[in-house]
Amino acid sequence: MKKKINVALLLGAGASIPAGYPSTEALTRLILSGENVRYHTDQAFYLEEAPQGGCEYVKLSIEAITVLIGEIEGFYKKFFGRAPNYEEIYYVASQFSDFQTGELDNPALQRISQFIEKEFGALVDKANVEGVSKALDIAVLTQKYICDIVWRSLSSPSRSTAHLDCIVQLLSSKIFNRTALISLCHDTHVEMYAQEKGIELIDGFTQPRRGGEVLERILVTQKNPTSSILEIAWFSELVSFSPT
Fold first, then answer.
1. pTM of the complete model
2. Which residue range(s) make up the domain with 101?
């Protein structure tokens, strides 16, 4: 009798596209354009087909993003051959915010922080927007702008989950002992699919139930998941997984 083997299914972020969600590139384009984005009195950004006010906050956020892109795009073009995406823009804005508040203790950021503070300060003087009086305010606003647009874009129900039927096939196979999932998707259509199919998704944070199909969630711990070696946390066990 052959020994059963373990199998891990890797779902890249592109797996969200068949489900009807925008790609990373599409989200970045939306953030850069500000199309149908408005800022409401509850201090949140919304996607609306019939926008109502708040244009100055959207414009200010896009101008701040343009400053950040100008500072980091050379790095991404040199090493990755592309422009920075919304995640990387958000990351720089958050680093600046954390450095300004002392949450991030990294003196190496002092020079870029001074540059961003100067550029954002010029935007503050030009914009004259209520509630934005210093460079840190613009950084926080920009992070919220990106965050609100992304989660609103990814919060709608999925249009199709047929591409996930391979999960059911893996679980029903008799040659696999444990079936696990590595997902880089930012939406929750995989979780919703599992719930719809009665599959228990174990993420390491909740106690598993007894009986039924079980899909184990592997958590990616390495910052760059596109590396040839993925370091993954399988509950309390650290495993090295080399894609072929």
1. 0.78
2. 24-154
